[in-house]
Specification:
The structure is a homodimer. By secondary structure, chain A is mainly α. Chain A has one domain: Tetracycline Repressor, domain 2, CATH 1.10.357.10. Chain A contains nine helices and no strands. Chain A is elongated, with a radius of gyration of 18 Å. At the A-B interface, helix 6, helix 7, helix 8 and helix 9 of A face helix 6, helix 7, helix 8 and helix 9 of B. The structure holds a DNA duplex.
Chain lengths: 188, 188
Amino acid sequence: MDTKEHILAVAQKLVQQRGFNDFSYADIAEEVGIRKASLHHHFATKAELGVALLETYSAQLNNELLRISALPVKADAKLNAYCSLFQSSLQAKCMCLGGMMASDSLTLDKAMLPGLKHFFDLNTEWLAEVLAEGKSQKLFVLTSTAADHARVLLAALEGALLIARATGDHETFDRIVWLLIKSITRKG
Amino acid sequence: MDTKEHILAVAQKLVQQRGFNDFSYADIAEEVGIRKASLHHHFATKAELGVALLETYSAQLNNELLRISALPVKADAKLNAYCSLFQSSLQAKCMCLGGMMASDSLTLDKAMLPGLKHFFDLNTEWLAEVLAEGKSQKLFVLTSTAADHARVLLAALEGALLIARATGDHETFDRIVWLLIKSITRKG
DNA sequence: CTTTGTCAACCTATCAATAGGTAGGCTATA
DNA sequence: TATAGCCTACCTATTGATAGGTTGACAAAG
């Protein structure tokens, strides 16, 4: 693996575990196997690293969303696949990088905020599409716009991940996901 | 105000704004108006301060919940009052202390974790009661247990607060709350 | 009363560890 | 020979925490 990619991968994991301000260049350096100063060759400042992390994380998500969208299944299965992304994160004891950055938002360099907002937009826009698709397939019953339901889903998944990771209660997470899906699924 | 309470109040605000690891004893000392070393007289370690913060925050919440429970209104109004607690937090650009601690959970002293779990339990148990009350008053239509709906509500509110505070999008927060309530409210 | 001892509450001064970041040099490859 | 990539060595600021001293309130003992 390219060193720059290696740095990004290690830093991403650290953010998802501890938050953007609770790991250091020293932590990255040790795990990557180079010296602290060498990191500055690739990312001059931590803020610059943060911007890059948001970019690559959004790109990773986009790949996943494209993959799911391309599956030969109906919208309900796509929504399930989306939820399982959060489930995987929980199993790895990782918070969503976006959610983690959001909790640090008041302390972040302002250059990072547009990338953060973009990440959430990416989620809600894709979700809205899938929900609309499911509605036209008579799978989902929506009581408001697809965009509104998308926002609720994203918020609930982020919150459920946040709480379940802290309490260690994976079953609660699963029940939340189950009820969220059930509440928009057409009965019968 | 008692100095110890003053310290707790200042520290609480700092946690809600920045997170538990992103403020220092120096920050508290400056705002309280005493020296850094004097803080250790009241809270020997930061972990000790953290435990106390979770205790007082849960106590504050409990007071609010008792106040709302005592209101001469039906369950739907109580749920509204509960949601407005999160709304107030957002307006003050503060994350919920529990949610903030949850995002820091992997870096926290283990002595703080039981207090954190207790905070979430307090929320879900009260919510479940109000939801059951509303169901028996024919105000709410629940598609699962009151406890399950309580978990979804808490997760969605925490997540919505997290995201809205980071993006500055208060309208999205309001729409999420509106749809959450609508989705369990009896039609007609 | 006055003295004595105790304690909470605060102080100054200092500590080792760690933070992000910089300066400048070495080496291999293009 | 220029540059990418990495290095050693170092810097300043800040972190939570400690040692040890000062002050004033208050209660018991003379």
